[in-house]
Amino acid sequence: MSVAKKQYKRITVKSLVDMKANNERISMLTSYDFTMAKIVDQAGIDVILVGDSASNVMAGHETTLPITLDHMIYHATNVVRAINRSLVVVDLPFGSYQSDPKEALRSAIRIMKESGAHAVKLEGGSEIKDSIKRILKAGIPVMGHLGLTPQSIYKFGTYTVRAKEEAEAEKLKEDALLLEKLGCFALVLEKVPAKLAEEVAKSISIPVIGIGAGNGVDGQVLVIHDMLGMDHEFNPRFLRRYADLNTIMTKAIQDYNKDVKSGDFPNENEQY
């Protein structure tokens, strides 16, 4: 078990690189609103990801594709208002950066200016290098994302583990080195074999944060609704539930409903 070697008053992109150098694991969770982000920040999480997974857990879409740049800015703005310590990273949504580096820069600038976030995250490697270069040249920190890239779900056709075959594994390793060379400050690896993820983490100097990528990387990220057990239907192998809020919240709401129907709420002590 790693032990924190330094107290960070405020997490920056440099903090994360230092944490890797000091063998300190990096904690990362998603948040999409003020109240949840405030709890996550106060709990000491290093990085808050305003993920395009908001498309799934906040809006009920099947994929991350429908969420727009305006939606992402809205969620990010609410998160930034809540934090004092965590680094806030925002996903660039599908369609906002893939086709045109100039559009990618405009999208990243909007997120940074309108939300006050600290960095952006993009999915992909060599195929989006020009967009990454353009954003970095403007002074905006970029986190990469390789392995299973949910914005490409219709290309893959499945959410299964990526890079199990040698050719795809080699491409992933090459892309990781490229992202480091371009100047990305960190990299998310999603749903790849643990041995490959560990190899990648050891081959580059920037932090590698895993989700379904084993324990040989520099940090971990989960969707907060998943780790809090708010949804009983999503059960991937990599998910550890730290609470069962679905059951707790359902019972609380049922109890409230019962008390309202019976006239027990509010009682004499709960009225003016």
List the main descriptive attributes of the protein structure presented here.
272 residues, alpha/beta, TIM Barrel, 2 domains, 8-stranded parallel barrel, 11 helices, globular
In helices, the fraction of residues equals 40-55%
Task: Give the name of the CATH superfamily of the largest domain.
Answer: Phosphoenolpyruvate-binding domains
- Please describe the biggest sheet, giving its number of strands, its sense, and whether it closes into a barrel: 8 strands, parallel, barrel
CATH class of the largest domain: Alpha Beta
Query: How many beta strands in the DSSP annotation?
Result: 8
Strand order of the largest sheet: 1-2-3-4-5-6-7-8
Binding site for 3-methyl-2-oxobutanoate: 52-53, 91, 121
Binding site for Mg(2+): 52, 91, 123
Active site: 190
InterPro entries: Pantoate_hydroxy_MeTrfase (IPR003700), Pyrv/PenolPyrv_kinase-like_dom (IPR015813), Pyrv_kinase-like_dom_sf (IPR040442)
Note down, in words, how this protein is organized.
With 272 residues, the chain is α/β, with parallel strands linked by helices. It has two domains: 13-241, TIM Barrel; 244-272, no CATH class. It has eleven helices and eight strands. The protein has helices at residues 13-21, 34-42, 54-57, 69-80, 101-115, 129-137, 153-156, 166-182, 194-203, 224-227, 245-262, and strands spanning 26-30, 47-50, 87-91, 119-121, 142-147, 186-190, 208-211, 219-222. It has an eight-stranded parallel β-barrel with strand order 1-2-3-4-5-6-7-8, surrounded by seven helices. Helix 6 (129-137) links the parallel strand 4 (119-121) and strand 5. The radius of gyration is 20 Å and the shape is globular.
